[in-house]
């Protein structure tokens, strides 16, 4: 019988923020226990940011260069297959709790269709179990039923200021059992209790935390000492961080504190180091709050006798800078925005398994296809992880990570753009190997970095002989990867016709 599928995403969760991977501060006891029964992918990367583009890759198995969702609000081409459509073909009723941030393809809708007025549409193929759009309206209605009045709901995330600080550590008016995370967990658990034991189910639980706003209820508002976090990565001065790359400077001049903290004024770059620490403590608190709700879910699966029959996937859409390089938020060139968690437990799979190979959000869709024994309607860029889940190592696998960022919509554009640069030129492609990060853009100069012992980037002088050789090698590696990722859907048709049984997973990943 087909397994149950539970895909859990926690928005904007950094890949290093798990006790299971050795974070010195963050406490995630429920995920740590879950990791002991599963496979942890230690170097897993989003393909892009922000939310809509990153989720498009997660759901379709395609890199941004192929799905072309470049920003929140950019539509997802209706011709692409996705996890929900494939789930329907596998006999499930894919059910969503939360959001997918999917703007619909306008070519398959009437121009007057209200669905075209929002990027918060539901990925085609999903049935709604419980929606949670950005305005939180269903959650606020639930709070109203618990006695909150309209005035409280209008500023529900605001907290009391603390004198002398831009970032307050005061708690929210709502409690730990009244968060958006708890609201969605409640809805899922109620739905889970109605599922027949002889009918496999597929649920996608999409939590918004630890995405901003960065305010927390008690006790999570004070769960962490702001001074307890590890040292921030990157140069010690703001100017040195801005000088690493033109796009970094533009983002620093663009990013507003109000996007991260209610009532915040000015730019993130103007925060005092102590305020970065306070934001980080709240971010860690949000992670622990989600972990507590995940404990409820895992306990319910165990109590219902479903754990042994359920594929559980925990991941994120993209990550979070959280003070590194004097930044907060996501996007740009740094891997802190793209390194995300991935833990998968598969019935019959190995336990306590660790994978150090580079893996991608584009691998989730091919993995589910492989588990279901289905062929996709397009050729994914990612590759199935199923062999890793069985304790095996693929013969060939990628030796690098790749992420993209389209910056045409930034309010502040980078300096020194290539003369005549068009909107489509305003993107970067970042290739992360074992020892370097290479950044290519049609609109900006190439950049090459090595890694310091703490993981911070160190510029490589590409004007020297050795640096020029390294740059040439990095360019070649990226070009080879870009050529390999050209769309193969129709090119593979003969393979599908003559060897359909072999198409459950995409071709082997390699350089």
Automatic annotation (TrEMBL):
<keyword id="KW-0479">Metal-binding</keyword>
<dbReference type="InterPro" id="IPR017850">
    <property type="entry name" value="Alkaline_phosphatase_core_sf"/>
</dbReference>
<dbReference type="InterPro" id="IPR000917">
    <property type="entry name" value="Sulfatase_N"/>
</dbReference>
<protein>
    <submittedName>
        <fullName>Sulfatase</fullName>
    </submittedName>
</protein>
<dbReference type="GO" id="GO:0005737">
    <property type="term" value="C:cytoplasm"/>
</dbReference>
<feature type="domain" description="Sulfatase N-terminal">
    <location>
        <begin position="3"/>
        <end position="373"/>
    </location>
</feature>
<dbReference type="GO" id="GO:0046872">
    <property type="term" value="F:metal ion binding"/>
</dbReference>
<keyword id="KW-0378">Hydrolase</keyword>
<dbReference type="Pfam" id="PF00884">
    <property type="entry name" value="Sulfatase"/>
</dbReference>
<dbReference type="GO" id="GO:0008484">
    <property type="term" value="F:sulfuric ester hydrolase activity"/>
</dbReference>
